[in-house]
From TrEMBL:
It holds the Pfam family HIT. This is Histidine triad (HIT) family protein. InterPro entries: Histidine_triad_HIT (IPR001310), HIT-like (IPR011146), HIT-like_sf (IPR036265). GO terms for molecular function: catalytic activity.
């Protein structure tokens, strides 16, 4: 992993503004600036890991907190009645563009199927 700071680390440090939805001691949830659904919130651990596999191997408790935070965001955003999606993109071919693990919480509308390349990142 590069020592260069990621965009998310700068958001966590409050160097870059973000529309923060929810925060715990170890996680931060904020709206995606390029939403792919009516509701699109990113959940990041404050400690940097490259992707979800690296996080799971190094700190399963923190991974569980990221998922718990995603569920809390869904509740706060009113997504629990009709459903929501939580997605982790892992590495470039999956669409990961910021190499600081993050969960996408998507909902607020009928979501389509996924898996085919659309030319959009995540």
């Amino acid at each position: 992993m590069s020592d260069a700071e990621t965009l998310f680390e700068r958001i966590i440090a409050r160097e870059i503004p973000a529309d923060i939805v929810y925060e715990t001691d170890d996680t931060l949830a904020f709206r995606d600036i390029n939403p792919q659904a009516k509701t699109h919130v990113l959940v990041v651990p404050k400690k940097r890991y490259r992707n979800v596999a690296e996080l799971a191997a190094a700190d399963p408790r923190l991974l569980a907190e990221v998922v718990t935070t995603a569920a809390k965001v869904a509740e706060l955003e009113g997504l629990t009645r009709d459903g929501y999606r939580v997605v982790f993109n892992t590495d470039e071919h999956a669409g990961q563009t910021v190499f600081h693990v993050h969960a996408h919480v998507l909902g607020g509308e009928q979501l389509g199927f996924f898996g085919r390349y659309s030319g959009q990142g995540g």
